[in-house]
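fyi for ur records
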Amino acid sequence: MISRRRRRCLVSAPALALLIASAGCSSADEEVKATVPAPDSKVTELCRNLDKQLPEKVDGLARVDPAPKSELTAGWGDPAIILRCGVAKPPKMNDPEADGVTADGVNWLIEEQDDGSFRFTSTLREAYVEVTLPKERAGSGVSPLTDFAAPVKKTIPEGISS
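which gave:
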């Protein structure tokens, strides 16, 4: 379940009007969001098949999908491990010096992000599958990728995606 965070505000009446107008004191869900890829129809079908095979738990974390709901995105835990299927080929994949790892027969490009998170993108498959590991879960190493290996191998054939 995604945690809800609420703020308590102590303000004067005039300041309250300003806060209400700017929504600075509202309580709202901090919903996990993920940009939904827009691949061609062949890749979309592969990704839909992958979605049906994804585990309910990854690295011991329950599935909590991001908004907007899509068969091309999935999430686990809070802070969430996010999977997006059908992403564009990362430019770093053309770098012969890029870091990579193999987890249970699936190859992944590794990219550390500026915020301390890690992005893994499957390689040598007919669709690119991206997994983002938040910095809070960086200590897990590549262990979450092992939970994705069987579904990726079963639904995303080996090959080169354009």
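The radius of gyration is 19 Å. thats all i got for now
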